[in-house]
């Protein structure tokens, strides 16, 4: 799509006709990750001032969705899957097979371009870590988190998320 603006121009700065033309001319790929795993990752990277995961989660919940950091803000509010028809949705934890498929669809040699992924170990580690962190939360926090991320949990295939239970 011909550029008339700076490289950092956000999609919302274009008019509806321009947006439709741009989105129609690109292959749109969305990478998603279980929201609870995103919270764990943010906590582990020190993205809050809280000493415990439970208090970090409470900070996130108290801040609300409008004040949430991009790191843990619900994906639906960031990527607008109801407005943008993505060609591919790639779920974290299944990167190797999904990226391989995506590269083959694009006509590229998937085997030589993909880095080595350790999806199986990553899934096992996050499963274990998620269960440990989830057990630190109160029942009220678990319910509030499920509500906080309800649209993500409805829009994306996070069937094994602890927040869906």
Automatic annotation (TrEMBL):
Its EC number is 2.8.2.-. One of its GO terms (molecular function) is sulfotransferase activity. InterPro entries: Carb_sulfotrans_8-10, Sulfotransferase. Keywords: Carbohydrate metabolism, Glycoprotein, Golgi apparatus, Membrane, Signal-anchor, Transferase, Transmembrane, Transmembrane helix. Its main location: Golgi. GO terms for biological process: carbohydrate biosynthetic process; dermatan sulfate proteoglycan metabolic process. Belongs to the sulfotransferase 2 family. It is a single-pass type II membrane protein. It is found in: Golgi apparatus membrane. The keyword Transmembrane helix applies. It comes from the Eukaryota. It holds the Pfam family Sulfotransfer_2. This is Carbohydrate sulfotransferase. The keyword Ligase does not apply. GO terms for cellular component: Golgi membrane.
């Amino acid at each position: 799509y011909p550029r008339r603006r700076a490289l950092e121009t956000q999609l919302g700065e274009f008019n509806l006709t321009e947006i439709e033309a741009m989105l129609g001319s690109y292959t749109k790929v969305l990478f998603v990750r279980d929201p609870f795993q995103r919270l764990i990752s943010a906590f582990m990277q020190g993205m809050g001032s809280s000493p415990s995961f439970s208090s970090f989660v409470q900070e996130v919940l108290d801040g609300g969705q409008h004040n949430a950091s991009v790191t843990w803000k619900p994906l639906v509010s960031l990527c607008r899957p109801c407005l943008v028809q993505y060609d591919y949705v790639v779920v974290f934890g299944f990167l190797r097979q999904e990226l391989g498929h995506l590269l083959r669809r694009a006509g590229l040699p998937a085997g030589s371009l993909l880095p080595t992924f350790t999806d199986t170990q990553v899934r096992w580690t996050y499963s274990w870590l998620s269960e440990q962190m989830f057990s630190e939360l109160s029942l009220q926090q678990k319910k509030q988190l499920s509500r906080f991320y309800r649209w993500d949990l409805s829009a994306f295939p996070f069937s094994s998320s602890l927040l869906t239970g």
